[in-house]
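Re-run with default settings, no changes from the original entry. Doing this only to confirm the output is reproducible before filing.
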Amino acid sequence: MKKMLAAMLAAASCATMAQAQTGRPAPPALTLDEALAAAGAAAPATEAASAGIAAARANRTTAGLRPNPVAQGQVENVVGSGAYRGLRSAETTIGVALPIELGGKRSARVAVANAQLSRAELQAAVATADVRLQVTQLYVEAIAAQRRLTHARDQERIAGDALRAASVRVRAGRASPLEEQRADVARVNAAAYVERTDRLAAAARANLARRIARPIDGALDDALLDRLPAATYGPEVAPSAAGTLALAATDAHLAIADAGVRLARANRVPDLNIGPALRRLEATNDTAAVLSVSIPIPLFNNGRAAVAQARAERSKADAQRRVTALDIEQAITDARAEVANAAISARAASGPALSAAQEAARIARIGYREGKFGQLDLLDAERTLAETRVAAIDALATYQNARARLERLTAPAPQGEFPQ
């Protein structure tokens, strides 16, 4: 007895060690937050937005630079006649022209560049929000596709059981061979549905993996699909586009247009050019200082047309902002209604409707095995259960996608000030 017990313990120990050496723990489930973080780091849209911010910052640096001085050289009284023959009376002048901007042009350029940088920052936030929406929808679809595959395999197993039960009834002479043929057709259709669903689930998983730029070895957070809000009642809050990311983008365009009007007005003021120089007189070998001052005369182009154009662009941006605000508020209203309706449908499909269909199918299976129900009753109950399961999955996925779209519409704009 002791030898047998020792042998059993040794065998159990060896089996445990072998399992520890060969068995690998299942990789942890990939959560939605992890998928969003991975996609944000690998999304080309995010990279493009970052490059846009870098370009806007470089543009702001360029806008703050002063105009470059111009080196000038001039030789007078050469290659003439008489006393001016050759270089005997040449006057050589070497100097520098210093442009002096007037009217606040530099600060106006910087204001335009700051507004453009603000828009680039907002575009980066918009790109991030769009990536978040895309990844969320792909994640939800991958979960829904996997759950459809699970239910399809379950229906295939049930169809196989029904075929075996029908075969038993036919061999026992309790049913006609037609019942076995019907059950076999149902099993074939169930197997084909599994194959199609499996292919769709693999495609959904591959699309998610491609978007997050990493393979998905483990499972996904399947419980995400079942997270429904509690039923709420009461008056609807009026939607507002204020503070949303979508409206902030139009605000950035309006800010650029405002700065453009200021720049157009500043450009109407002519700039001053001062040219200090030294002049050498070849005849006397003397040197003298020269100071030149020039200012353009706004005779043909006084800048009024540019100011009118900038004001028109500003009016256009303001009108587009009002249109966008109305569109956003309408979209939020529609999205809220869609989310509420999707939640109601998901609760009904995954709750009472699914429970009733499951109970009806269970009763039909028992009754068919006991000869109390016909095969058509069983097939109808199984078909109703399969349709209800798919409808429940679709309703849950529709709610999650609608909630993600609503979050995208109401995403707040990033807060921050940009240096002048």
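DSSP finds nine helices and four strands in the chain. The first strand starts at residue 70 and ends at 76.
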